[in-house]
Amino acid sequence: xxxxxxxxxxxxxxxxxxxxxxxxxxxxxxxxxxxxxxxxxxxxxxxxxxxxxxxxxxxxxxxxxxxxxxxxxxxxxxxxxxxxxxxxxxxxxxxxxxxxxxxxxxxxxxxxxxxxxxxxxxxxxxxxxxxxxxxxxxxxxxxxxxxxxxxxxxxxxxxxxxxxxxxxxxxxxxxxxxxxxxxxxxxxxxxxxxxxxxxxxxxxxxxxxxxxxxxxxxxxxxxxxxxxxxxxxxxxxxxxxxxxxxxxxxxxxxxxxxxxxxxxxxxxxxxxxxxxxxxxxxxxxxxxxxxxxxxxxxxx
Length: 300
Description:
- The protein is an alpha/beta fold and 300 residues long.
- It is built from eleven helices and six strands.
- The chain has helices at 23-35, 49-59, 77-81, 83-103, 143-155, 180-186, 200-212, 229-239, 251-255, 270-275, 282-294; strands spanning 14-18, 38-41, 63-66, 107-113, 161-166, 217-220.
- Strand 1, helix 1 (23-35) and strand 2 (38-41) form a beta-alpha-beta unit.
- Helix 2 crosses helix 4 (83-103), helix 4 runs parallel beside helix 5 and helix 8 (229-239) runs parallel beside helix 11 (282-294).
- The radius of gyration is 19 Å and the shape is globular.
- It comes from Hibiscus sabdariffa (roselle).
- This is RmlD-like substrate binding domain-containing protein.
């Protein structure tokens, strides 16, 4: 199989991106524009092999990025009642794209999820012991997470795939309803559990660099360390809205208002940090990329 070795590819970069209407897919396009990288969005449906082959033939990309997938609207509870639709996109579609890319000798950068683990005896909450790339997923509470764990296991067999485990994504756009901060500021009550999270403003440019370096395999795609819901809301209050208040509830109370349980975990980001030493810890990244740019000054 003629995949490029690590290092830059010979011909000029051209990215084929799936997920035009999604949050990450949209941000990726803007990033490519800002960096002067040639790109096109795929028009094919992931589960339709012929349409993917047609996209690749017409675009002739150097790399393919997949930010398409079903997370459910307004949240993953949707997947519990739309299981076939969830499988069609998250499993059949992703595997079809990986398979077509392999056939064409292309690396696929796939934005996956780290919500396939939950704290356990070997990785207790607050211990600083995170799940590593090679650990077997242990969270099957939601159908969404179940499909993501299945497809990750199968994609391990594709040597052309770079799997990025994103968690609780956050960006500097605090108006975006998909933004984890925006979500929790709008909830009536929140749980308060430390978690690994992904600051998109810092990490999406890194994913482009990973494509350039032709990196493959599984990567915990989060900032190092954990941050709790309350810590984020305290930062929000201190930087954005001094009058902001919130209420907490516990997992038992939360379970009464959601259909599927949610994943809480710490992912070990050492592999990513070794490849990109400049990567900031989650709290530093939150302040630099999210809260400082949005800070409300006295005169505002």
